[in-house]
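Q: Could you predict the 3D structure of Oxidoreductase?
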Amino acid sequence: PADVLVVGGGLAALRTVAALRDHGYDGPVRLLGAEGVAPYDRPPLSKHLLDRSSPAWLADDLGHDLHALADEVHLARPARALRPLAGGGAVVTTDEGELTSSCVVLATGAHATTVPGWHARTLHTAADADGLRAALAGGPRRLVVVGAGWVGAEVAGVAAAAGHAVTVLEAQAAPLSTALGAQVGALTAPWYAAAGVDLRTSARVATVDGTGILLADGSRLAADAVLVAVGARPATRWLADAVPLRAGAVAVDESYRVLGPSGPLPGLLAVGDVAVRRSARHGWVPGGHWDEALHGPDVLVRRLLGVPVEGPEPTPYVFSTQLGHDLTMFGLPGAEDRVTVLGDPTGTGWTALWARGDLVTGALVVDRPRDVGAARRLFARDDLPRVVLPDAPGPDDDLR
Ligand code: FAD
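A: Sure. Here are the predicted structure tokens for Oxidoreductase:
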């Protein structure tokens, strides 16, 4: 391409710029961000909510100096609109005028999901984390977390460990149900009480006001701080109807080309949390995985520049440290997939495997470092792995 315009200022945007230069692209590269700060790493915001703060979070430059790699960097100039051009590329509108580019990469990530009318915090940026940290400062506080997903579980754990009184309200019957399904999610429920967190499942929140939470059953819960951690939605509102969306995300093919009504739109790519990627191996892969924002841009740039892609496509991969446990998840299990648990879920470590027929679609490894390597190897191939799973696994079964 004659030039590249990257829209977004997070990990996927930075890695796109870095990959362009790594693979020898020497044309002009411009970047538009919205947060006003250089790209930084988000996973520590929840895991190190109380033992770090912005100076440390923002100092993590993810191993690259954006200003040295790109020709123009505008970290506080959000894109407001996009108009694809018939000949390829697009015109991007900002408050300071229009930018035309022959190759636009959408990497605007996601926003934390909010509930209209609720007076509650969310956690997606370093500024959000600073605000929540400040709300918990100065002695034990009552923290209510709405949502027992990855972020909610992590924040609940670190806050309880620091002596705060933490209640987690989860609408579904078990924590992590969206990612793991109710059966495997339920295996994490005992961790809450063990960590001193009051977990209430099947809890319906009616509203959150300045003093606390009103539940659908009419009861009230007082709180000094309320965090709503009910997921993230791709940051696509600024695109209006410029490109078709799939479940709110920008649909891309295996080469990260944005899919229009009749095929890829020339000179328009998307990667990271904003995108949902078509995959022969996994079906549609949504964003929300740090690893996709880390490795997707390299594949995008290789395909763009005609550099051969080595190895299989990026495997959906999530890690979490929560309530004293280490979780690593590979693949993308479907709601109907069969689950086998190896090891003892009440003991020192276990691994859940999901299968569709004899194809393994997902693996969750909990506190079992040696299974992490085995699971990674299983998914490091072009096809979904086939393994024979025991019908009645014993406590000593593992993934070797
Ligand atoms: P983002 O990180 O969202 O970055 C997008 C950037 O683009 C933002 O700076 C945004 O302000 C900017 N932007 C938005 N709109 C515009 C616009 N119109 N114009 C210009 N710029 C714009 N994943 C894991 O796998 N494991 C974890 O343990 C884990 N922990 C997490 C903990 C927290 C608290 C959070 C919030 C996320 C966590 N994640 C984790 C998810 C992971 O951080 C994301 O998958 C990753 O950040 C995605 O990177 P991204 O660059 O696509 O998007």
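Q: Anything worth pointing out?
A: The chain has three domains: 4-111+232-305, 114-228, 333-379.
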